[in-house]
Amino acid sequence: MEERIKSRTLDDGEDAKPLVFGDSVASDKREVRKKKIKKRMFYGVMTKKAFIKKQTGRKISFEQFYFLKKGQDIQPFVRDVYWYHRLKRKIFIGVINPKDKLFAKILHGPYKKMVDGKVEEEGIFYFGSKHGRWMYEKLQGEEMILIEKEKYYKGHPKESTFSYFDVDKTKIKEVIPAKNGDRHGDYCRFSEAGNLLAEGKYEYNVKVGKWTDYFDTNKRKIKRQLQYQKTWDEKDFKPYTLIELDEKVKVIYDKAAEDKKKPADRKPDPTKEF
């Protein structure tokens, strides 16, 4: 390899050594070499790899996943948060109890579940929520058959409608869940300050379960809670108010308490749609 030597000036001092420059293709490649992406980094965050192995009779199940190494804030508009209990070696879905926070780790990155060496479920998590494409397969005979394929965007079906307060889409306003053209999944609405104002669930365009309204504070103070039918196909169900409170948390209406009174002494149900 040829090299060219450039002499220093007198200002560099008498003991200065000449600079050597390598005129080679290899040196040029080193200059533009890209940084390697770390194997356990997903969406710019480092994770740790883990697995759960169970055996029931002759059947062996194996779950491989990743979780956040450091504590991170989960998305405020996602209800089904997936997390791993390091002590119990089990994956849970939902709110992390204060007593479990020391052992709870938020799932983040690829997930795969195998039974007897065959993949039954595969997808990826984004800060505790399902994201991207998820595949579900089942063994029929000697072959694995695809039974369902879903696409998510940060915990909600990808078809869902997201609205924001700002152009840069940093302040979430409302999430209307959608699947196959129907309103289906967890609904939520926020104030411009980022506080949760309302949440509930849809099944095939029908409100189901409990729907909750909150005051515009960061303490999630319940304003009222309504009860809808348990499933979308339940007929002739009339929604009713479970509880309603004022900003000082004083009870305005409590169905459980009213039901204990004589019919003539009961307050009328204040139910109004959201």
Can you offer a commentary on this structure?
With 274 residues, the protein is mostly beta strands. The protein folds into two domains: 37-157, no CATH class; 159-274. It is 4% helix and 50% strand. The chain has helices at residues 25-31, 255-259, and strands at 3-6, 19-22, 41-42, 45-56, 59-68, 82-85, 90-93, 104-106, 109-115, 118-126, 129-140, 143-153, 156-157, 161-164, 172-176, 178-179, 182-183, 185-190, 196-203, 206-214, 222-227, 240-245, 251-254. Strands 3-4-5-9-10-11-12-13 form an eight-stranded antiparallel β-sheet, with no helix packed on it. Strands 14-15-18-19-20-21-22-23 form an eight-stranded antiparallel β-sheet. The protein has a three-stranded antiparallel β-sheet with strand order 7-6-8, with no helix packed on it. The longest helix has 7 residues, at 25-31. It starts with a strand and ends in a 15-residue tail after the last helix.
